[in-house]
Amino acid sequence: MPEIPQSSTDSLFQAPRLSSHTRIDVRTLQNGIGASQAARHGRGAGGLQHRHIEALLALDGHRSLGVMGEEQQDRIQRTAQAEDAASQKRAAEYLERIGEEEATRRAENVANPNAYHPKHNPDGDDLDTCPVCGHKTFCVEGLDPIFGRVGYGQCLVCTYIRTPGAAEDEAFTEQHFRSMDDE
Questions:
Q1: pLDDT for res 108
Q2: Neighbouring C-beta atoms of residue 150, cutoff 10 Å
Q3: Is the dihedral of CA 74, 80, 83, 84 positive or negative?
Q4: What is the pLDDT of residue 6?
Q5: How much is the pLDDT for 154?
Q6: β-sheet with 151-155: strand ranges across
Q7: pTM of the full predicted structure?
Q8: Each residue of 56-81: b (16+ CB within 10 Å) or e?
């Protein structure tokens, strides 16, 4: 049977050794806990200072922690998804007000007002199909910065707006599905 390394207390669980590059300012972190006490318990405003945040970020720099960047990225993604859902809802409500006949009339008479012409559009048209109204009236202002496949911009009929963040999120989703198809 293999020998299991033991700590001085004969515990199977050993505290991970911190990298020599990790700076832990315990006094500042403890002070930050005290300064945020009122806000964390709903009894007033917190008083965190820049030094508290710096100490926390330094601690987060350890390889076994390092989740603050991931949390921030998740928050950015959730915000982009919420904004896109709100824009789709607003556009659908607008379509309902003007009716399908008026939307079709507007789609037949639309022209792209910007100079950007997406290179990803296989048929070479200036406008993409809007995911909300289904008309080829989505005015692309640019492509997602990661894969360069999903356009962001605004529909010229239903006013749906896809932000760069929403385009990036959709591009990641498309890439995920493509990778699943390749397996």
A1: 93
A2: 23
A3: negative
A4: 41
A5: 94
A6: 127-128, 138-143, 151-155, 161-162
A7: 0.59
A8: bebbeeeeeeeeeeeeeeeeeeeebe
Considering Cα of 86, then 142, then 137, then 178, what sign does the dihedral take? negative
Between CA 123 and CA 129 the distance in angstroms is 12
Backbone CA torsion sign across 28, 29, 33, 36? positive
Q: State residue 116's pLDDT score.
A: 61
Residues of the chain with pLDDT under 50: 1-18
pLDDT of residue 47: 78
Cα(first)–Cα(last) distance of the chain, in Å?
39
The 10 Å Cβ neighbour count of residue 107 is 19
At residue 123, the pLDDT reads: 53
Phi, psi (deg, nearest 5) at residue 163: -80, 165
Helix (H, G, I), strand (E, B) or coil at 147: coil
What's the token pair of residue 82? 């919420």
Which pLDDT value is given to residue 3? 43
The tokens describing 155, both together, are: 């529909």
d(CA 144, CA 177): 17
With tokens 């859902």, the residue in question is: 85
Cα–chain center distance at 72 = 8
pLDDT at 65: 66
